Amino acid sequence: MKIAITAESTIDLPKDLREKFDIKTVPFSILLGEELIEDGEDAARQIFDYVAKTKVLPKTSAVNEEQYRDFFDAVLKEYDAIVHFSLSSQMSSAFENARRVAENYTNVKVIDSQSLSTGIALLAIYARKLANKGDEVDKIVEAVEKRIPFVQASFVLKRLDYLYKGGRCSRLQLFGANLLKLRPQILVQNGKMGPSKRFRGNMDKCIMEYCNATLETFDSPDLDTAFITYSSKPQTETLERIKELLKQRGFKNIYTTTASGTISSHCGEDCLGILYINDGSKK
Predict the structure, then answer these.
(1) Where is average pLDDT lowest: 40-49, 111-120, 148-157, 199-208?
(2) Collapsing DSSP states into helix, strand and coil, what is residue 13?
(3) Are the C-beta atoms of residues 86 and 113 closer than 8 Å to each other?
(4) What percentage of the chain carries pLDDT values higher than 70?
(5) Can you count the helices (H) and strands (E) in the chain?
(6) Residue 270 resides in a domain
(7) Cβ of 224: how many Cβ atoms within 10 Å?
(8) Same structural domain for residues 249 and 222?
(9) What angle (nearest 5°) sits at the alpha carbon of residue 8, between those of residues 7 and 11?
(10) Which range of residues forms the domain containing residue 216?
(11) Alpha-carbon gap, residue 86 to 205, rounded angstroms
């Protein structure tokens, strides 16, 4: 059986990695004033330019049922079945939309990733490897769902401006954090984004402190794959230091990716995260 692995654009994988792992995506939509664009690799920069000019956040729209139906139909012309990964149901209506459409098919399974960005990609890549081994759809779904609670997805933010514009923090929190140069860590737990540690000072220094603290806290990683995902590329020296840190920890495959427009519209510029599955001792 030829099994397709699919996701929304919020998986944050560039074209070369989507092709490498044979993962198909369907895009979210982003409304920049009166201009409607599809989410993708270049959408984040368009959003940052739009916000800098207008001081207003764009609106993002989940994939609707008609779009899922067209997408699934197109994929099933080439594949016998689909395992689809959705952005956490706690963050978007995408999962519910996809689930309702999938009820009309016997060969489409939809998984609530309970994650975002390359946290979803980690699960999708695992599913692809199982499919390539010849596992059946139900076995793939069961194996993937067991790993969902162990996805370590977190980011460190330079500023809270976008969270404030999106109503996710107060003006006082914004002022205090920016005045004191506090760089908050955002952690995904139980499908929701929430604050975790805070770092203070120069952003590049804080990025390295965040990476070390994350590896210390989530210290049982599956060392096969790690992602470094950012909304704005950090200094080359900092990026190389992160890669070296992950290599020293033992990660075999380290990928760098740019966050999609949907993800970037929530975290803003100069946001960076390391993501991996923290179940190495349980596998």
Answers:
(1) 40-49
(2) coil
(3) yes
(4) 91
(5) 11, 13
(6) yes
(7) 17
(8) yes
(9) 80
(10) 150-277
(11) 33
Residue after which a domain boundary falls, among 114, 147, 180: 147
Q: Let me know if residue 126 belongs to a domain.
A: yes
Residue 282 counted as domain residue: no
| Residue with tokens 């890549």, as numbered in its chain | 125
Nearest C-alpha neighbor of 141 from the set 102, 91, 188: 102
Number of domains in the chain: 2
Residues 6+ apart with CB under 8 A from 226: 246, 251, 253, 254, 255, 274, 275, 276
* 186 neighbors 266 (Cβ within 8 angstroms): no
Are 138 and 189 within one domain? no
Q: Does the pLDDT of residue 52 top 90, yes or no? A: no
Residue 179: its pLDDT value, please?
42
Q: What's 73's domain CATH number?
A: 3.40.50.10170
Question: Are residues 78 and 154 located together in one domain of the fold?
Answer: no
Residue 230: which CATH number?
3.30.1180.10
Greater confidence, 220 or 162? Answer: 220
Same domain, yes or no: 126 and 156: no
At residue 205, what is the residue type? K
From 98, 118, 147, the end of a domain falls on 147
Q: Which residues of 137-174 are buried (b: 16+ CB within 10 A; e: fewer)?
A: beebbeebeebbebbbbbbbbbbbbbbbbeeebeeebb
Rounded Cα distance between 268 and 257, Å, is 15
8 A C-beta contact, residue 187 and residue 249: no
How far is it, in rounded angstroms, from Cα 76 to Cα 118? 25
Please state the rounded mean pLDDT for residues 20-27. 98
DSSP conformational letter for 136? -
The confidence score (pLDDT) of residue 163 equals: 54
